[in-house]
Amino acid sequence: MAVIPDRYLDLLRDKKAFASLATIMPDGSPQVTPVWFDYVGGAIRVNTAKGRVKARNLKVGAAVALSIMDPDNAYRYVQVRGRVRKATEEGAAAHIDSLAKKYLGKDKYPFAQPGEERVMYEIEPRAAQGMS
């Protein structure tokens, strides 16, 4: 597992930074989506509903990349390359609620659709570098 350089940990832990998550489509082309995330136990965690494009691409073992820009300084960012190490529905609803708290200040995720099934993904960083 790669260590995120200390000078960028505030982007993962303290700020309401969005990540641009790059995944790979079945045909090999890239797909990028802005996502909410958190950083727990050395893993970057993201969340989505089953059936979405990124959910189809985020299989355990899949290669991904994230670019996380400082919301206070667009010229400061960290980019992380890694692999999906876990995908689980267990705790995923609580996880999206915690992300809604972080990003919106709301206790409950307000955009849930009827019958939606959430999945939480843990991404293990393998390489990280940035610009300050």
Total strands: the figure is 7
Largest sheet descriptor: 7 strands, antiparallel
Strands of the largest sheet, in order across it? Answer: 2-1-5-6-7-4-3
Can you tell me the number of structural domains? 1
For the terminal residues, how far apart are their CA atoms? Answer: 22 Å
Quaternary state, please? single chain
* Number of helices, counting only DSSP H or I runs of 4 residues or more: 3
Q: Which structural class best describes the helix and strand composition?
A: alpha+beta
Topology:
Blueprint: H1 9-13, E1 19-24, E2 30-35, E3 38-40, E4 43-49, H2 53-57, E5 63-70, E6 73-88, H3 92-104, E7 118-131
Antiparallel strand pairs: 1-2, 1-5, 3-4, 4-7, 5-6, 6-7
Give a quick set of tags describing it.
single chain, 132 residues, alpha+beta, Pnp Oxidase, Chain A, 7-stranded antiparallel sheet, 3 helices, 17% helix, globular
Summarize the structure.
This protein is of the alpha+beta class and 132 residues long. Helices cover 17% and strands 45% of the residues.
What would your notes on this structure say?
With 132 residues, the chain is of the alpha+beta class. It has helices at residues 9-13, 53-57, 92-104; strands at 19-24, 30-35, 38-40, 43-49, 63-70, 73-88, 118-131. A seven-stranded antiparallel β-sheet has the order 2-1-5-6-7-4-3. Strand 3 (38-40) and strand 4 (43-49) form a beta hairpin. The chain starts with 8 loop residues before the first helix and ends with a strand. The mean pLDDT is 96.
